[in-house]
């Protein structure tokens, strides 16, 4: 996710901006820039790469202004580059803007500015639109111009704006992306997150959604969207810097688990046009392409592979194309059936997993069309693919993948739906129904997160188990594979996931008095079968925790505990059933005193074979 900082006061702004951005590096970025005043002009310095590249390039330029804004960019639209970096300016270079988020209707605004007002753009970003839009409305009052501009903008954004003609103020806006204001003596600060300003002040205004902020060195004024001045209590920060980076959560993992509703929402909603049709921005798979494709491979590792299993189900069901889902480290040595009629989908959070990259290269060499699902723009998998679907999960720091997984699921559902409707094998009515239900996932995920204590209490009573079993049928076994991986990789408990119908062919020999079994039982058409399997393990003394859809009370007669997820269509339950399993794994690991964010022997990105 991008990082924003701003300063207005009597000190030189540039070092304060650079230091503030350095405290936001944990948010992940691929470029950095500042807009600072010098001799009453705005100077923009911005470079692809680490913050040090920016710092080295400006250290001898003596930007002595005492107002400025700074930005670290996590690319969403437009690959990492100097010109795609922020700040962006209007044509005259007298208005500079930094932005965290995505302007969903930026193409519509961009086309309007180009066609109606002959505006020329320098970058591929959505953010540059903001600078030109404010310029269009500017008539000598920056605050007024910003109010008018944001009326046109749709999406999630935190922005900060400076203007050459008004060098005594910064205007900032918050809509869905984080923004805070730091309060100083004769100086004021703004940032995406508290760590950026902690060195200077612990007194903060927390800016709420749809609020506009006017910063001068004398004071801070907060307006609502009706331009009415808002009162705001000062929030005194007691956290240390590390706690602040986790925004008060104990670990990055639980923070990222709780960021899933937003990640799912952003991954989905920014690709739905006004008619509710998915627009896979930049993915150019036509009906002719799909009519020619007779096989799909989905290849990945670990959690991404588990997302691929759901993708296999979704593409076969919605697009009616046979799918082979394979582990990347195995794929290359199978002599796979790949040719120009194959669509190869690589899924990778980091985009740097060498096994996945090697498999992609092998498929490409054999003529396949390469579509990748990645969370890191500009990563190797991204750059070596023909088409890319970015999951907008934001930076995932914890080694155990959570929000990347559920946004990968969202991605594969969207790709499958797009393929089905494009091929003409999925009715528009069914398409609309699924998208409509997919749109409820963020709020349904939030309901599960709000009831996290159920998983926490279960973990507190069960964390001493040294082996745990996960079982399910259909999509639930695919979801169970991921739940089992989550538990083992952060709690070091030996867990396994087994198809419930397969239990009797061997694994049930391991079930004994007190064995913990998590039974994922969300598939209506397989529910009765799962009830039988629960009884099967109960008869051998197992303690069974079922994950079931709200309303399916029958399971309470068999399982010892039931964690309910909100009702939804069978096809989409993996997005929701993942969350109780993530929470359970997290709280077990915490109870066992494990290093939750950095589990032993593991790396966030496995760049070796
Ligand atoms: C998931 O929790 C693990 N950290 C691991 O399995 C991971 O999913 C796998 O290494 C693939 O990583 P990638 O998505 O970055 O390619």
Topology:
Blueprint: E1 3-8, H1 13-22, E2 31-38, E3 41-48, H2 51-58, E4 67-73, E5 88-89, E6 95-103, H3 106-117, H4 128-137, H5 142-152, E7 155-163, E8 170-175, E9 180-183, E10 188-191, E11 203-206, E12 211-215, E13 220-223, E14 229-230, E15 235-236, H6 241-245, H7 252-258, H8 260-269, H9 287-292, E16 295-300, H10 302-318, E17 323-327, H11 328-331, E18 342-348, H12 354-365, E19 369-374, H13 380-383, E20 387-390, H14 403-423, H15 428-438, H16 441-450, H17 452-462, E21 467-472, H18 475-491, E22 494-499, E23 516-521, H19 527-538, E24 543-549, E25 561-565, H20 573-591
Parallel strand pairs: 16-17, 16-18, 18-19, 19-20, 21-22, 21-23, 23-24, 24-25
Antiparallel strand pairs: 1-4, 1-10, 2-3, 2-4, 5-6, 6-7, 7-8, 8-12, 9-10, 9-11, 11-15, 12-13, 13-14
């Amino acid at each position: 996710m991008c990082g924003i900082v701003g300063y207005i006061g009597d000190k030189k702004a540039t070092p304060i901006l650079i230091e503030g951005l350095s405290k936001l590096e944990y948010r992940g970025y691929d470029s950095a820039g500042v807009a600072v005043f010098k001799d009453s002009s705005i100077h923009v310095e911005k470079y692809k790469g680490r913050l040090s590249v920016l710092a080295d390039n400006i250290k001898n330029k003596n930007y002595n202004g005492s107002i400025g804004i700074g930005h670290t960019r996590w690319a969403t639209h437009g690959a990492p580059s100097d010109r795609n970096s922020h700040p962006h300016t209007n044509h005259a270079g007298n208005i500079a803007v930094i932005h965290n988020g995505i302007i969903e209707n930026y193409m519509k605004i961009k086309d309007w500015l180009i066609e109606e007002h002959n505006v020329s753009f320098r970058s591929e970003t959505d953010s540059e639109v903001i600078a030109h839009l404010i310029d269009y409305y500017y008539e000598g009052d920056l605050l007024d111009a910003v109010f008018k501009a944001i009326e046109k903008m749709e999406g999630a954004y935190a922005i900060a704006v400076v203007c050459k003609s008004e060098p005594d103020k910064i205007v900032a806006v918050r809509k869905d992306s984080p923004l805070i204001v730091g309060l100083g003596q004769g100086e004021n600060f703004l940032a995406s997150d508290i760590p950026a300003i902690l060195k200077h002040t612990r007194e903060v205004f927390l800016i709420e959604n749809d609020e506009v902020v006017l910063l001068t060195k004398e004071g801070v004024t907060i307006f609502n969207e009706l331009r009415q001045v808002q009162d705001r209590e000062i929030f005194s920060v007691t956290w240390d810097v590390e706690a602040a980076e986790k925004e008060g959560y104990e670990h990055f993992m639980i923070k990222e688990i709780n960021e899933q509703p937003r990640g799912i929402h952003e991954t989905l909603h920014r690709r739905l046009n006004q008619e509710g049709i998915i627009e896979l921005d930049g993915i150019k798979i036509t009906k002719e392409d799909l009519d020619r494709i007779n096989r799909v491979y989905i290849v990945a590792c670990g959690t991404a592979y588990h997302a691929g299993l759901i993708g296999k189900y979704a593409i076969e069901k919605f697009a009616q194309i046979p799918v082979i889902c394979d582990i990347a480290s195995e794929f290359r040595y199978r002599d796979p059936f790949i040719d120009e009629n194959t669509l190869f989908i690589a899924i990778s959070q980091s985009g740097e997993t060498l096994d996945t990259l090697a498999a992609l290269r092998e498929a490409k060499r054999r003529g396949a069309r390469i579509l990748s699902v990645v969370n890191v723009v500009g990563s190797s998998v991204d750059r070596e693919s023909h088409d890319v679907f970015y999951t907008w999960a934001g930076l995932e720091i914890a080694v155990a993948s959570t929000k990347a997984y559920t946004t990968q699921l969202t991605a594969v559902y969207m790709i499958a739906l797009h393929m089905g409707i494009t091929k003409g094998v999925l009715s528009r009515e069914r398409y609309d129904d699924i998208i409509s239900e997919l749109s409820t996932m963020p709020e349904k995920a939030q309901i599960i997160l709000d009831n996290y204590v159920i998983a926490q209490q279960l973990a507190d009573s069960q964390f001493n188990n040294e082996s745990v079993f996960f079982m399910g049928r259909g999509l639930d076994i695919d979801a169970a594979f991921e739940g089992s991986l989550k538990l083992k990789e952060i709690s070091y408990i030996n867990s396994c996931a087994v198809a419930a119908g397969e239990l009797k062919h061997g694994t049930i020999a391991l079930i004994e008095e007190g064995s913990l079994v998590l039974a994922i039982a969300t598939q209506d058409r397989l529910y009765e079968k799962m009830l039988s399997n629960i009884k099967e393990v109960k008869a051998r003394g197992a303690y069974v925790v079922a994950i079931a859809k709200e309303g399916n009370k029958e399971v309470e007669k068999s399982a010892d505990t039931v964690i309910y997820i909100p009702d939804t269509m069978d096809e989409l339950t993996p997005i929701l059933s993942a969350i109780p399993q993530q929470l359970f794994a997290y709280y077990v690991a915490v109870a066992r005193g494990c290093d939750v964010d950095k589990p032993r022997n593991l790396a966030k990105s496995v760049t070796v074979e």
